[in-house]
Design goal:
alpha+beta; 5-stranded antiparallel sheet; 9 strands; 301 residues; 4-stranded antiparallel sheet; 22% strand
């Protein structure tokens, strides 16, 4: 199928008219993208507001399904977890005196020590960087330069996509070893036989707890087991581990240990779910803007 012009014009003039038409279309698109950038700014500011530190924060229930391994709650304010109270029943963890389970309390009594969710810090930084990109594209840079706007949209897309991926979560299996939680966050301090790790997965708060035992000669400083448990291990009557790390050894706080029992608990965070949904929508809108600009600039494959 071909396009004809009536009355006929010379080929040179046809080329000039096509170039002029493309220039007008590009000018119109660049102007409309400024409106899109303003809308993107509003969406990004809504995301920042949802993860900003606001009292009383988000209180999330942490309860292991179909068992009493973990029962309790934590409170998130911004990128920090500021309060928490849990009852823990794990093999190898002695109960608190006078209670049927171990009482784990997140106290934050030391003002220099906080439980910070690094993924949320990363999300906040990426959203702030995206806002900077929008401001530069709107006020500082040349809004009529198609190549400049194209580069800014690419940077904006990468930042938003990375922020969404951070909320989605990645492979964090080794994080509990690389970044162990500070024992001073708890009252009483976290015992050496217990690993506590919080992260973000699919916009939910993910808690992983492990009871540990030394791979070397039993030592009360790392094994921490009572007489009955040590006796059960000696005669081979201890419970068989049934988790995915049962046959591995790990270097934890300078000790080689095995994971005796492991529990994984998730709690959906409505604010983080809203942020993730907004970021997905913003990412889609930026992708459409990039596609439209590439087509008009002749970059589309």
């Amino acid at each position: 199928m071909s396009t004809s012009v009536y009355p006929p014009i010379s080929p040179d003039r046809l080329v000039r008219e096509e170039e002029a038409s493309l220039a007008r279309e590009l000018e119109w698109l660049l102007a409309s993208l400024q409106e899109s950038l303003a809308s993107l700014r509003s969406g990004l500011e809504e995301c920042i507001a949802l993860i900003a530190p606001q009292e009383p924060g988000s209180t999330l229930v942490l309860s292991s399904p179909r068992s009493d391994s973990v029962k309790g709650f934590v409170t998130r304010v911004g990128t920090r977890v500021v309060r928490g109270d849990m009852q823990v029943k794990l093999f190898g963890l002695a109960p608190t005196k006078g209670l049927p389970s171990y009482k784990l309390t997140l106290a934050n009594s030391d003002p220099s020590c906080f439980l910070v969710l690094d993924q949320l810090v990363n999300v906040r930084n990426l959203i702030n960087q995206s806002l900077d990109v929008v401001d530069v594209s709107t006020w500082t840079g040349d809004a009529k330069d198609a190549n400049f706007i194209s580069g800014q949209l690419r940077l904006l897309f990468d930042n938003i996509q990375e922020a969404r991926q951070a909320l989605k979560g990645a492979d964090t299996r080794a994080d509990w070893l690389v970044n162990p939680v500070d024992e001073r966050l708890f009252d009483p301090p976290l015992p050496s036989t217990l690993s506590f790790h919080l992260s973000i997965s699919e916009a939910a708060l993910l808690l992983e707890m492990r009871t540990l035992e030394s791979t070397s000669t039993p030592d009360a400083s790392i094994s921490g087991f009572g007489f009955r448990e040590r006796f059960a291990v000696a005669i081979g009557a201890s419970r068989r581990p049934d988790h995915d790390e049962a046959h591995e050894t790990f270097l934890y706080r300078g000790h080689e240990v095995r994971v005796k029992e492991k529990v994984r608990v998730e709690s959906q965070d409505p604010s983080l779910m809203a942020v993730m949904a907004k970021l997905a929508a913003l990412e889609h809108n930026v992708a459409l803007s990039r596609k439209a600009l590439d087509i008009v600039m002749g970059k589309d494959d």
